[in-house]
# Entry
Amino acid sequence: MKKLIFLLLAFSVFVVPSRAQSVDASVSYSYFRLGGSGGINQNGVSGSVAYNPNRWLGIVGDFGGYHASPFGVSLNTYTYLFGPRLTLRNPSKINPFAQVLLGGSRITAGSGGGSANQFAYSLGSGVDIGLLPHLAFRPQVDYIGLETSGSRTNCTRVSAGFVVHF
# Structure
C-alpha cells in the first residue's frame, strides 16, 4: 500500500502543470452503510481536498467519520483515502466526475470495545452543480471496500454537500 501511495504522489509531481490549476474543498453529510444486507447504517461527515493540475485530472484526499449506536454500543468508522479523480468540465454548470481512491479505515466500538484498522479502497462518482462562480452543490455515491485478514466488508456511502473551487 505504501508503494501505491508513493506512486500516486510521484505521478502528481510529474503531471505537467497548466494555467488551469485549481484546488477544490468539499464538506458533505454522508450516509454510510457498513456491510451489505444486515449491515449497520451510520451517519456522519465527509470532506475532500483536490488539487487539479489541469481541467480533467485531480489528486484527491478524502476523509470521513461516521457514527451509529446499534444496541446502545457506540460504533464509529473513519476513512482516509487518496487517489485520482477525472472530471468532465464543460461550459455548463454541471461537471460529472469519477474517482478511484486507496487508503485505510479505522473502526472503533464502545468506550473499551476495541478498534480495528483496515485497508480501504473506493470507487465512486458524483457531479458538481454550479450555484455561484466558486460554489457548487455536490451529490456523490461511492462503493467502499474494507479489507481485513482475508475478508472484505462491502460498504456504500451516499453524500450531499457543497464544494468551493479556488
User: Anything to note?
Assistant: The CA atoms of residues 52 and 67 lie 31 Å apart.
